[in-house]
Amino acid sequence: MPFVEEYVDAVVVGAGHAGCEAALACARLGLETVIFTVSVDSIALMPCNPNIGGSSKGHLVREIDALGGEMGKVIDRTFIQSKMLNVSKGPAVHSLRAQADKAEYGRAMRKVLENTDHLQIVQAEVTEILAEKGQVTGIRLYSGAVYHAKAVILCTGTYLKARCIYGDVSIHTGPNGLKSADYLTDSLKKLGIEMVRFKTGTPARIDKRSVDFSKMEEQFGDKTVVPFSFTTNPEDVQIDQVSCWLTYTNEKTHEIIRSNLDRSPLYSGVIEGTGPRYCPSIEDKVVKFADKNRHQVFIEPEGLHTNEMYVGGMSSSLPEDVQHAMYHSVPGLEHAKIVRNAYAIEYDCINPQQLYPTLEFKSVGGLFSGGQFNGSSGYEEAAAQGLVAGINAARKIRGEEPIVIDRSQGYIGVLIDDLVTKENHEPYRMMTSRAEYRLLLRQDNADQRLTPVGYRVGLISEERYQALLEKTEQIQKEKDRLEHTMVGASGDVQKFLDSYGSSSLKTAASLAEILRRPEMKYEYLSVIDPDRPKLSPSVTEQVEIDIKYDGYIKRQQKQVEQFKKLEEKKIPEEIDYGQIPSLRIEAVQKLTLYKPVSIGQASRISGVSPADISVLLVYLEQKRRERKSSNEAEDGVY
Amino acid sequence: MVKSDTIAAVATGMNCSGIGIIRISGEEAFEIADQIFCPAKKEKKLADQDSYTIHYGTIADGEDMIDEVIVLLMRGPHSYTAEDTVEIDCHGGVLVMKKILNLVIRKGARPAQPGEFTKRAFLNGRIDLSQAEAVADVIQAKNEYALKSSVRQLKGSVLSFIKEMREKILYEIAFIESALDDPEHISLEGYPHKLGDKVDNLLKDMKNLLINFEQGRILREGIKTVIVGKPNAGKSSLLNMLVGEDRAIVTEIAGTTRDTLEEQIQIRGLSLLIADTAGIRETEDVVERMGVHRAKENVKDADLILYVVDSSTDLDENDEKILSLLIDRKVIVLLNKTDLLPVTTEEIIKEKLSARVVSISAKEKTGMERFADLLDEMFQEGKLSYNDEVCLTNIRHRSAMESAKESLEKVRESIALGMPEDFYSIDLMDAYESLGHILGESLSDDLVNEIFSKFCMGK
Q1: Beta bridge mates, B60
Q2: CA-CA 20 to 30 A from A588: which of A319, A412, A613, B350?
Q3: Does domain B7-112 have CATH number 3.30.420.40?
């Protein structure tokens, strides 16, 4: 043989945030796994913003951790500032966001990968996916080497036929000047996979020594830091934090941009890819929100051992000279030295409707994918998909039922369901508004929601699972106690209520009833609750939320019951929608394209009406009865 | 919002035939019936009665007696839907049936979706396998009709008014959501107070709309009727006679202004929707070509055609053209101007067209009694009918508007209690969805689109 030939269980293509989680999941579940990257020095690279988490993304990180993923643990070791966002709002939208030391983050993740059994890292470009009879068999490298595998997980991020663009400069590289992967797209197309082209962008990085911070507002981290991982000891994350800085664009900035719009590749048509609306370039913001006379700019450190700083809020693909002028027009950045230009990046990815909710391709068995390759954006979204793809690839190889997290179980479920069920015309970002049951999907209870799943899968240790069971029991006990402990309308109680501006009691009430008053807190109640047991803050937090928002939570739980009914009605894979009379043509087309796994998923496809769903239900019932009666007939023969 | 899974609808057609049946099916069917049924003799609650028993009594809304009824009880699985089912046989009459159905819904049932009884019957094994395709057809056909009629039944002004309310709600949700997603760029400082005012305004509008729903001013419900006839046959006078000169002027509450092109009239409890009334008045003295052309257009989708003939003159080519449009349609011919010397008689008409003919004089205001009799006859014979979906659609609309209102009231309450902002958006979203049911629009990606188009987000 002229080339290397190896036999492994699973191959992961790409070692970004999706690839790392996918490879770790496979290897930890005992599969011989190889992860390929174009550069070992770029494992878990953060090519854009220097933070992990944020609104709804923080939820994802918590969920990844609850399932047994790695992202939360690594950021807890490498963050340099941390904030809980939205603390003045309801518990459902509290969200953690940490500034990462980028280099340290990558290094720490690489170390984890390197020290995981059954996992091998290889630096090489994968150029071909090998498949036979609709089943993946392995991959081929640029060198010609072949790795036979039972499952392949594609996590190619923004590298496929990547092109970085600013002004009239267009370079065929991936992010940060890394090599692009130019062959895989064609191999995928040959397998019948539909590719699309997306675009995203990043702002400039500047030299800290050239920034005048006296013209900016300092942004501190939280006094008490909450860790991402449920396994991290909160004491370990109380570190000295680094600040971020806030400044603003102004009319002058906008004028510079406006007068140079004709030189933007976005407006001149050089860029073909579809960019995200939620992460607009500064030129987009100036054009779309012309009435705003300033936009926020966050200057964020990229790490402790570098002077580079990230100019958040000013991503751009304008020519270099315009970038200089526009950045220099911002207070504090007058003399800023640019280390790396802002640029837009275009890349190939797939239309994720080609995937099952398990993240396996419908057309190629054993081929899975996750991350930006699936049309999403963001490190956290990528990691979440990588983890699920990894778990399901492993389960498939081990002959186990796939794991699908549904919309009522986690943001991960919402993310994947949206990707595979809804039309998506731009890189998909997680948002809390996308989660219809968000009161149940809080970042604080991710462990209760998903750790049992992680345990079943085999990524959560017995010890961690037992600890969770104990916590759950404590929460329940304390809730029951508060519901059943009555306090009378005594003078002491009235005085207590009065001191918090709460109206006095007319008759005796339970502690839970008092806690439900908006102005009340669990902590305050200790005054009139002398027999309170000693419980950890993570337990009392759950007790407090569950009791205070009981009405809303129960309502959503009821909605979830309805939702589950439809989710549990599975549609057989071999169904032929063309054969169902009275299904409208549009519905036949959409259902055939999406191949929904359940009636619930079918009902979320645009173009499928409630009547179509009823017709589908009638058809499935008809088939069920036909099967039953033919079985009975057979029984009669024997 | 999750509504109870007990459904209700009128099981017979919405016509004046002897008896009308309201059917309630689902777990709470008995419980709901017990809340509104007063047995004639003091007896046990319906919930404690045996299956397949019949009970005589009255349906009352609190103190108000609505109708004398017979109630039929069937416990699942031995009923049409295989669920607990109550059938209320009332004395018919569109108004009574609607009243009872509304009451049932207020007590916790939800208006059945088109074809839902049939669907449940099939899914619960009550309909034979061989009927599966027919069942699917019924569901699809009824839905199609409901979807079309759902929007068509709302007056144009109401439709755009509801759309507007919905847009306002969406804007607020998008604002809250963008602030939640990007708290460092978008602040909710002082917002709850502003939202409170906006919600108050929306609530006021909704309450008005509901009052108008109650009074039947919102919906185009009835038999779609057109008046045709050559110029000067007396269409305009007939219209005035039907509408009545002293009809109440509808108050100028938003969304209730009368559509100029349509008049709704009541004749012996039957509702006629007269199309293109402006056209009738205007074409009276416009060139005849126009008149005939218009008639052609209007006749197309009418349920009933009132053909006005000038009995004092001969039928001319205009009449011939009109007559050719009326073949095989449901027509009443009104021989007008009988106060003058008759030239065109009933016999002449009947040679040309098989239709009921009535002599009237719009000028003298005679013949109305006979006309009303004819209408009644056609209705009783089933030649004219409301589609039962129409009535149900209206009830669905109203119940959707009720839930939208309730959701907004919850927002108001949350603001008053000082709940965090993300809770407002949950109820606002429910209100938005409920209004969407009226318009036949689903949620889809409205919100995400609104967020991105109206608010400038990070990075």
Answers
A1: B65
A2: A412
A3: no
Q: Which residue shows structure tokens 């009226």? A: B438
Q: How far apart are CA B184 and CA A275, in angstroms?
A: 22
Count, residues in chain A: 638
pLDDT tens-digit series, residues B10-52: 877 655 555 688 999 999 999 999 999 999 887 788 999 999 9
Structure confidence by residue, pLDDT tens digits, B62-109: 888 888 999 999 998 888 899 999 999 987 666 788 889 889 998 989
Query: Which of A202-206, A607-611, A627-631, B357-361 is the most confident on average?
Result: A202-206
Contact map slice: B 153-182 vs A, CB within 8 A: 173, 177, 180-182
Q: Residues near A472 by Cβ (< 8 Å), separated by ≥ 6?
A: A448
Asked if pLDDT for residue B4 goes beyond 60, the answer is no
Are A279 and B459 a contacting pair at CB < 8 A? Answer: yes
The answer to whether the CB atoms of A55 and B144 lie below 8 A apart is no
Q: Where in chain B is the domain with CATH 1.20.120.430?
A: 156-215+400-454
What is the secondary structure of A407-473 as a DSSP string? TTT-HHHHHHHHHHHS---S-B---GGG-TTTTTS-GGGHHHHHHHHHHHHT-S-HHHHHHHHHHHH
Find the CB nearest A315 among B129, B181, B459. Answer: B459
Cβ within 8 Å, pair B445-A422? yes
Question: DSSP assignment, residue A476?
Answer: H
Query: Which residue intervals of chain B bear CATH 3.30.1360.120?
Result: 7-112
Element (H, E) at B213: helix B191-214
Cβ density class A35-55: b for 16+ within 10 Å, e for less: bbbbeeebbbbbbbbbbbbbb
Cβ-Cβ pairs closer than 8 A, A with B, add up to 145
Among A116, A19, A99, A22, smallest CA distance to A58 is for A99
Tokens of residue B99, six digits: 């009243």
Residue B111 in tokens = 């208006």
Q: pLDDT at residue B254 above 50?
A: no
Q: What φ, ψ does residue B223 adopt, rounded to 5°?
A: -90, 120
DSSP secondary structure of A181-245: B-SHHHHHHHTT--EEEEEEEEEEEEEGGG--GGGSEEE---SSPPPSSTTS-GGGG------EE
Cβ(A311)–Cβ(A234) below 8 Å: no
Yes or no, beta carbons of A611 and B140 under 8 Å apart = yes
A35: helix, coil or strand?
A: strand
Domain architecture of chain A: domains with CATH: 5-455 (3.50.50.60), 462-556 (1.10.10.1800), 569-637 (1.10.150.570)
- A584:B140 CB<8 A: yes
Say whether A555 and B2 touch across the interface (CB within 8 A): yes
For A488: left if phi > 0, alpha if psi spans -120 to 50, otherwise beta; the answer is beta
Task: Output the pTM of the full model.
Answer: 0.84
Q: Using CA atoms, how far apart are residues B305 and B332, in angstroms rounded to an integer?
A: 6
Please give the span between the terminal C-alpha atoms of chain B, in angstroms, as a whole number: 35
Within an 8 Å CB–CB cutoff, is residue B417 touching chain A? Answer: yes
Backbone φ, ψ for residue B67 (5° rounding): -165, 155
Q: Which two structure tokens, joined as six digits, stand for A174? A: 């991936």
CATH architecture designation of domain B156-215+400-454: Up-down Bundle (1.20)
Confidence of residue A218 (pLDDT cuts 50, 70, 90): very high
Domain B223-380 bears CATH identifier 3.40.50.300: yes
Longest dimension (CA), chain B: 86
Radius of gyration of chain A, Cα coordinates, nearest whole angstrom: 27
* Residues B457 and A279: beta-carbon distance below 8 Å: yes
Q: Which residue is closest to A55 within chain B, CA to CA?
A: B181
